Amino acid sequence: MPELPEMETYRQQLSRLIQGVPITGTDVTRPKSLNIAPDAFANKLTGNRFVRLERRAKHLLFHLATGEVLVLHLMLGGWMFYGTEEERPDRTVQFEIHFGDKKLYFIGLRLGYLHIHSLHEVDLLLRKLGPEPLGLNLLQFQNVLRKKKRNLKVSLVDQSFLSGIGNCYSDEICFEAGILPMRSMTSLSETEKIQLFQSMQALLREAIQVGGYMEEPIFTGDQLTGQYNPRCRVYDRKDEPCLRCGLPIIQIEISSRKCFYCAHCQK
């Protein structure tokens, strides 16, 4: 599932491709992923344009010139591609938004959705999200930590605690901080809290800079998207040697989520 760095990569890449470009049409093959009828969706978008793209947690917000907002959540397996009909990936497409001869394709939205709302409705929908990890200073982060007593893995993926972190980056952050993901929040020393904060900030910024871990390109010739994938320290590396000590990476389940760590480098 796309997490904060992947959605931020989409925001940055798509902003320069579609922002301000007139929308010339739409095509919908999965109406249940909309919150309005396909005809109404087409009427609201055709002739309109996106004036700003914003990310909140794992959501991407497409701000229309008319003041309404398209709220996208890709969920598990969802991704996007921008290009011509000839460049279109050979995958099932649920939505298309047309920009002349180029189209924005929404792919794999079996669980995801694309809803249109007013600004007020968007604020109500997203008000339960926790703070953005990269928007916190150390003192604010320490105050947020005091609200959680569960283990580190479960807490980091809880969107009401911190927004935008999921399975991949929760494991990567714990490894970078040298802390086991099954540790309870209350067991962390002040030094470990600082390590966790610094690791979270550094790792998320690194992942954004290199385009996140999802490898599907956003457009033909995209050389950025997915460049974090080969940099993963522990995620999805079961039995591979730890990049620090060489011992095998361990995979377990924590609250039905797969979790990867190094038993030697994380305490």
TrEMBL record:
<dbReference type="InterPro" id="IPR010979">
    <property type="entry name" value="Ribosomal_uS13-like_H2TH"/>
</dbReference>
<keyword id="KW-0812">Transmembrane</keyword>
<feature type="domain" description="Formamidopyrimidine-DNA glycosylase catalytic">
    <location>
        <begin position="2"/>
        <end position="106"/>
    </location>
</feature>
<keyword id="KW-0378">Hydrolase</keyword>
<dbReference type="GO" id="GO:0006284">
    <property type="term" value="P:base-excision repair"/>
</dbReference>
<keyword id="KW-0863">Zinc-finger</keyword>
<keyword id="KW-0472">Membrane</keyword>
<keyword id="KW-0456">Lyase</keyword>
<dbReference type="GO" id="GO:0140078">
    <property type="term" value="F:class I DNA-(apurinic or apyrimidinic site) endonuclease activity"/>
</dbReference>
<keyword id="KW-0238">DNA-binding</keyword>
<feature type="transmembrane region" description="Helical">
    <location>
        <begin position="60"/>
        <end position="82"/>
    </location>
</feature>
<keyword id="KW-0227">DNA damage</keyword>
<comment type="similarity">
    <text>Belongs to the FPG family.</text>
</comment>
<keyword id="KW-0479">Metal-binding</keyword>
<dbReference type="GO" id="GO:0034039">
    <property type="term" value="F:8-oxo-7,8-dihydroguanine DNA N-glycosylase activity"/>
</dbReference>
<keyword id="KW-0511">Multifunctional enzyme</keyword>
<feature type="domain" description="FPG-type">
    <location>
        <begin position="233"/>
        <end position="267"/>
    </location>
</feature>
<keyword id="KW-0862">Zinc</keyword>
<dbReference type="InterPro" id="IPR015886">
    <property type="entry name" value="H2TH_FPG"/>
</dbReference>
<dbReference type="InterPro" id="IPR010663">
    <property type="entry name" value="Znf_FPG/IleRS"/>
</dbReference>
<dbReference type="GO" id="GO:0003684">
    <property type="term" value="F:damaged DNA binding"/>
</dbReference>
<dbReference type="Pfam" id="PF01149">
    <property type="entry name" value="Fapy_DNA_glyco"/>
</dbReference>
<dbReference type="InterPro" id="IPR000214">
    <property type="entry name" value="Znf_DNA_glyclase/AP_lyase"/>
</dbReference>
<keyword id="KW-0234">DNA repair</keyword>
<dbReference type="InterPro" id="IPR012319">
    <property type="entry name" value="FPG_cat"/>
</dbReference>
<keyword id="KW-0326">Glycosidase</keyword>
<dbReference type="Pfam" id="PF06831">
    <property type="entry name" value="H2TH"/>
</dbReference>
<keyword id="KW-1133">Transmembrane helix</keyword>
<dbReference type="Pfam" id="PF06827">
    <property type="entry name" value="zf-FPG_IleRS"/>
</dbReference>
<dbReference type="InterPro" id="IPR035937">
    <property type="entry name" value="FPG_N"/>
</dbReference>
<dbReference type="GO" id="GO:0008270">
    <property type="term" value="F:zinc ion binding"/>
</dbReference>
<protein>
    <recommendedName>
        <fullName>Formamidopyrimidine-DNA glycosylase</fullName>
        <ecNumber>3.2.2.23</ecNumber>
        <ecNumber>4.2.99.18</ecNumber>
    </recommendedName>
</protein>
